Amino acid sequence: MFALLVGVLLSIPLFSVWLLVYDRQSQSEVARSSIAEGWGGPQTFAGPMLVIPFQDTTTETVTEGGTPVTKSRTIWRELFIAPTAVALDTQIKPQRRQRSIYEAVVYDTAVNGHAAFALPSDLPRYGVTLDRLLFDRAEIRFGLSDARGVAADNKVSVNGTALTLQPGNGLVATNRSGFFAWFDGAALKSGVVTADFRFGFRGNANVTLAPRAGETVWTVRSTWPSPSFTGGFLPVDRHVSDKGFTATWRISNLALGASLVTTEDGNDTNAPGNAPDRGSVTPPGDFQARVDLIQPVDLYAQVSRAAKYGFLFIGFTFLAFLMFDVIGGVRVSTVEYLLVGAALVLFFVLLLAFAEVIGFTPAYIVASAATIGLITTYSAAVLRSWRRAGFVGGLLLALYAVLYVLLSLEAYSLLIGSVMLFAALAFVMYVTRRLDWSGRRSSPAEVGPA
Fold first, then answer.
1. Tag placement on the chain: N or C end, fewer CB within 10 Å?
2. Pairing of strands 215-222, 244-252
3. Below-50 pLDDT ranges, the chain
4. Which helix (H) or strand (E) holds 433?
5. pLDDT over 90 for what percent of the chain?
6. Looking at residue 241, what is its pLDDT?
7. Which of 210, 215, 214 is nearest to 233 (CA)?
8. What's the angle, vertex CA 375, arms to CA 318 and CA 397, rounded to 5?
9. Closest to 389 (Cα-Cα) out of 301, 450, 317, 287
């Protein structure tokens, strides 16, 4: 009974270990953000998109002197033209940045692309006629969520003519952050316009593409060995090895659910090219493709998972002491249970502290060796036998070995854990099958005929 009570009381410091892991993980995330500050955040890029301003006339009815009056005014609007096809080749060069015991993954990215644009044959359906478009004030826009990360030596050309990039005028997909270039769009009147571009940017954690084209082909290459492909679209082809990865997405405009050509009303205070492009927003949902550069081993997640098995350690160890107490006749006091339980809980604190400095596996070896040595030595005095203490030490060694396997084989952890518990219960039932727990069991001679 006392052993059970002590086990319940130890749940309090065990829960405190979970809180400690959570707190240290939060500090780690803050530290990583601080390391990457000024380098560039998680980056989302979009485009290119052609934008051609035009003037339109709108009417409104107002009341003047009690009489409705219809007035007309001229406003600026914009025609947004997405590529009929775009091919993007992205090279991600990751780096590890450290500060004290914390580490963040940052990267340099080089994007090379080719896009083709064309005016729709049914342009009047969009409420725009060819003669109203100001082709000489056309723009080609690119979106980048954190423009602080834009690298130098970026180039863009339209139909072979090099253009000068300007800051601002991004796209809605990147909160209008990005860059653009003016060009003469008169070539759109007679056929297809092609754009070739190259730009680079810095960021950390992940790279996201917000596609918008009739057909988008995005190829990503990197030396990072542990990518995670997320977002609304997954790559159709990918190869991952310890030397890096290559992945390719193919995304159709039909899957995006957005027209290649859109318009948006502005107001009379908007200059050409400054109207927001809400018309280019895709329907609600995740219409992005993303690559996360994840850390191969998240030590905080592993320590947290290990701490969840704390009750298993306490239960098995206390069970061993209880067997020596009940069957072997060795008296184990409540204080001795409490001290052994405290040592078992302290293992997880040691594991967390060492893992932040030397990594999870070395920390696991150091913490488990220290805990096994401490409890085995103490058990020799409590149980008055090195042989019995050796049994406790062997039990702990097996438990820590199995726990490491459970942490490594996440998919089978529940299966292995449940089999262990079943085997332990079967062992206890077998060993105590003849034990008179109540002290009132009758002998076979006292049992009468049925």
1. C
2. antiparallel
3. 265-284, 442, 447, 450
4. none
5. 31
6. 92
7. 210
8. 80
9. 317
The pLDDT, as a whole number, for residue 285 is: 59
pTM, to two decimals: 0.71
φ and ψ of 363, to 5 deg: -65, -40
User: Tens of pLDDT along 257-290?
Assistant: 888 888 763 333 333 333 344 444 444 457 899 9
Q: How far is CA 219 from CA 95, 111, 112, 266, 443, in A?
A: 20, 10, 10, 36, 80
Enter the DSSP assignment of 172: G
Assigned token pair, 140: 């080609």
The answer to whether residues 154 and 165 touch, using CB atoms and an 8 Å cutoff, is: yes
Paired strand residues for 68: 63
Judged by DSSP in three states, 149 sits in: helix
Name the residue type at position 241.
S
∠ Cα 356 360 365 (to 5°): 115
Question: What three-state secondary structure class fits 227?
Answer: strand
Q: What count of Cα atoms within 13 Å lies in the side-chain half-sphere of residue 426?
A: 6
Residue 31, classed as helix, strand or coil, is helix
Q: Output the pLDDT for position 335.
A: 80
Residue 138 structure tokens: 């056309």
Per DSSP bridges, beta strands 43-64 and 138-144 are: antiparallel
Q: Are 29 and 251 in contact (CB under 8 A)?
A: no
Residue 238 vs residues 227, 291, 292: alpha-carbon distances, Å: 10, 12, 14
